[in-house]
Design goal:
Distance between the termini: 45 Å
Strand order of the largest sheet: 2-1-10-7-8
Number of strands: 10
Number of helices: 2
Number of domains: 1
Helix content: 10-25%
Length: 130
């Protein structure tokens, strides 16, 4: 069984958040890892819903804030819908994932969590006027 560390960083490499998930198989696809990450962050939010959601992708009807999203009202979020949105964002280069010291580029790419247990997620921000 493997333990994976999920970490969000800015494009400049500044860490934003970090947490671990234990008891995982030794290998998982990037798709499985993204869905796992989203399921975990949504479960944390749904345990105590607030106006603010700190997650990989923006929920429906939410406004983007610094390092998070503002919901119109505290509510539970559907993790599967969020995971589908995250997969589309990955494919559209909305964020990228580093496994160890390499960028993973395909949702079906297999990551060996015994050798690359640290996953870094870097959100890309669209430039205004560009």
């Amino acid at each position: 069984m493997a333990t994976v560390t999920f970490r969000d960083e800015t494009a400049a490499g500044r860490p934003l958040t970090e947490w671990e998930v234990t008891g995982l198989p030794g290998t998982m696809t990037v798709r499985q890892l993204i869905r796992l990450r989203v399921r975990e962050e949504v479960a944390r939010h749904n345990a105590r819903p607030t106006h603010r959601f700190n997650g990989l992708v923006r929920p429906d009807d939410a406004e983007t804030e610094l390092n998070g999203y503002l919901l119109r009202e505290p509510r539970r979020i559907d993790w599967e819908r969020q995971a589908d949105t995250a997969e589309r964002a990955f494919l559209a280069n909305g964020f990228f994932v580093l496994a160890g010291d390499r960028q993973v580029e395909d949702l079906d790419e297999v990551v060996d969590l015994t050798t690359d247990p640290d996953l870094v997620f870097i959100k890309l921000v669209a430039l205004v006027g560009g």
